[in-house]
Amino acid sequence: MSLDPWLLSVLVCPATRTPLRYDEAAGELVSEAAGLAYPIRDGVPVMLAEEARVIAK
């Protein structure tokens, strides 16, 4: 599944307000600055910190 490039360009990490990277293989939006990966469920990004997965920096 791909993510609309326009949507990716306007979404930012809610914790740090920095750009996100789309990880297509994992189906997540990754915030390198916050060390969080936000899931995409049924094509909808879930931009809640409590739903995000902590990733290694």
Automatic annotation (TrEMBL):
Belongs to the UPF0434 family. This is UPF0434 protein NMP03_12405. It comes from Sphingomonas qomolangmaensis. Gene3D superfamilies: 2.20.25.10. Transmembrane segments: none annotated. It holds the Pfam family Trm112p. HAMAP family: UPF0434. It comes from the Bacteria.
